[in-house]
């Protein structure tokens, strides 16, 4: 082949790649505008996309940066005496990773790894139909659908980029992040200070840089169980001390968040972990839990000894929300009232007064109310497949790696339990991250492992 022909073919190939890259940048611009990116963030995102699309095409780098979107980056600033919050949105980095990954797969003919794809697609179809039936304002209509899609993309990327050998590295990153957030929350609780503007919560609950103490507690719960898993996974004495200290720090911050549902989830998650790891250690764990409750201050102890108190207005409201949600289900048992309509049609089905609260906090009730028993069956089907996938993976792991898998299963069980109190399961990025980590390939099947081989 002549030199001129080789140059012509090379230019042709590069021009096609450049054209596809420019098309991606255009689509990313539209998506970022729809998502409400301001000018500064849009310019930053397009600059990052240009760099990762045309210069550094490793999909792992923007995904690592994109992991920030599961953490709370909300920075309060004061300009001329007026308070503002800067909310950094890094969903675009996840899309950049997806684009880079697909380009690599097209060149390397790599098949994607995506278990449970059938129930995922069925849920997506159900959500699309539900969004069309929603009575939400036009700008709010796609929220739930968009949330599900972005977290599904995140889930897809984690499965395709990371392998089992990367798991300790990822858990360590989450543990290190939790140190900063836990210390921030503890400082807030002790010194009665907040970093979120206009936050007026009783008891000065720890919340870090999150929007609400319950979101803070959710992350700290995850980091706490995973740090306990790393404590038993680590062989080095210094590492054991480090992860033991991280666990105690997270436990302290979780107590200061005053989130009873996450306290219960932590106890249940750790109990499940010790049952799978070594049933004998469960006795030590139970004794430690009882001792902790015995020595803690009276206001904390009351919350443990009386987790359900119907004289508490918040518990009365939750009971009313469940009753009103069940009334929706009885009137629309098969297909539900439609996506988001448990909120927008709440007054229509209300039979118990809930003092202005109109969002049902229980995942099973919300899902069934909006999508009927058809949606509930799909949800149960998906959960069963995920649990089966996590448990069946244990057969392929070494004795040491099983410890981390036990911790991930325990966290997922806690997330399922917590969803029945807060009802934000599908929108929660942590849920998708934990599922992905629990389903990581134990063999050298990931892209990074093949590159290193």
Topology, please?
Layout: H1 3-34, H2 39-54, H3 60-66, E1 74-79, E2 82-87, H4 91-108, H5 117-133, H6 143-161, H7 167-191, H8 213-233, H9 237-256, H10 260-277, H11 279-295, H12 298-305, H13 313-331, H14 341-344, H15 346-349, H16 363-393, H17 399-422, H18 429-438, H19 447-452
Antiparallel strand pairs: 1-2
Helix pairs in contact: 1-2, 1-4, 2-4, 3-4, 4-6, 5-6, 5-16, 6-18, 7-8, 7-9, 8-9, 8-10, 8-17, 10-11, 10-17, 13-16, 16-17, 17-18
Task: Identify low-pLDDT runs.
Answer: 445-453
| Biggest β-sheet description | 2 strands, antiparallel
What is the helical fraction, as a range of percent?
A: 55-70%
Helix/strand-derived class?
A: mainly alpha
Tell me the span between the first and last alpha carbons.
Answer: 33 Å
- Spatial extent as radius of gyration: 24 Å
Q: DSSP strand (E) fraction?
A: under 5%
Tell me the number of helical segments per DSSP (H or I, 4 or more residues long): 19
Oligomer: single chain
Widest sheet: strand ordering: 1-2
* Gross geometry: globular
> What is the N-to-C order of secondary-structure elements (H for helix, E for strand)?
HHHEEHHHHHHHHHHHHHHHH
What is the β-strand count? 2
Mean pLDDT: 81
Overview of the structural elements:
The radius of gyration is 24 Å and the shape is globular. α7 packs across α9. It has a two-stranded antiparallel ribbon. It contains 19 helices and 2 strands. The protein has helices at residues 3-34, 39-54, 60-66, 91-108, 117-133, 143-161, 167-191, 213-233, 237-256, 260-277, 279-295, 298-305, 313-331, 341-344, 346-349, 363-393, 399-422, 429-438, 447-452; strands spanning 74-79, 82-87. The longest helix has 32 residues, at 3-34. The chain has 453 residues and is an all-alpha fold.
